[in-house]
Amino acid sequence: MFPLRVTEELDDWPEKSVRRRLWVKFSEARELCWHPWMKEALDVFASKVSKRKEGTQIYHFKENTVVCCS
Which residues form the signal peptide (predicted)? Predict the structure, then answer.
């Protein structure tokens, strides 16, 4: 699991046949996590993003969403 900066969303990508892409809110992404360490990592990431939004905005989120690939 990696945070990524998305600059463009393509209809086709190399792993499209084995992965699906889904845009979800943070709360939904947390529920979709399979392992406790994934939930913890998402919580830490969300906390850091919230703090950065108050200052210089490094991350841009489409309606407070994250991408979930499985």
Answer: none
Q: Which residue segment(s) compose the domain that 65 sits in? A: 21-69
Give a yes or no: residue 7 inside a domain. no
As a whole-number percent, the residues of the chain with pLDDT over 70 amount to 64
Question: What are all long-range contacts of 5-11, with beta carbons under 8 Å and residues at least 24 apart?
Answer: 5/59, 5/60, 6/67
Q: How many domains does the chain have?
A: 1
Task: Give the bridge partners for 67, in sequence order.
Answer: 23
Report which of 12, 18, 3, 14 is spatially closest to residue 67, judged by C-alpha positions: 3
Give the span between the Cα atoms of 43 and 49, in whole angstroms.
Answer: 10
Given a cut of 60, whether residue 41 has pLDDT beyond it is yes
